[in-house]
Amino acid sequence: MHIINQLIPLLTLIVLETILGIDNIIFISILAGKLPAGQQARFRYWGLGLAMLMRLGLLTLIAWIMQLNTTLFTVAAIDMNGKGLILLAGGLFLIYKSTAEIYHNAEVGNSANTPDTRKASFRDLLLQVLLLDLVFSLDSIITAVGMIDQLWVMYTAVVVSVGIMLVAAKPISEFITRHPSFKILALCFLLIIGMSLVAEGVHVEIPKGYIYFAMAFSFLVDFIQMKTVPKSGNG
Q: Which residue windows are transmembrane per the record (predicted)?
């Protein structure tokens, strides 16, 4: 009975951490597409590996993380704290990156057969991932601390969830590359996540369930359209 009482919160946290990691996978997959094919797998491993190290490192600093809720200053009756500033900066960065990518795809008409000609180095892209890893990891760890009080459960959940993301990263990346419309959909998803991070940074809570439901519904509509349009075209 004692094992079951420990197993249930562990499995729950693994599922939650994996769901929260979807944002990370999509962002890394889109950036990986800017690199030569031979470097993409290594980039995904590095990006998700850094995400795991970031989460494990933050778990050792739980006391410091909890202090991030201390008010630093007040702007327009909004109490700003360390966590809020990190989420705000990360959200704005994600909005900028998503908007820039959407603009590039719309203007250049990027497709699966049209390579991205913008210069992008492995190191520069990895630094971008590192910045977003910090924001996503902070949100993930604070969620974990709010659910579980056993440190080993948090460590195990982080390692297992990142392992799942490593397995899922390649097929997701290949799918996005093959289907440009889903890349735009993924970028819009990241744009929404960026807006939710900004909102959370100023203490406006947007339930993530709404965001993931909207994304799942949009994905389903796009998937149905992808399957039905060629058939109607041939008819």
A: 6-33, 45-66, 72-96, 125-146, 152-172, 184-204
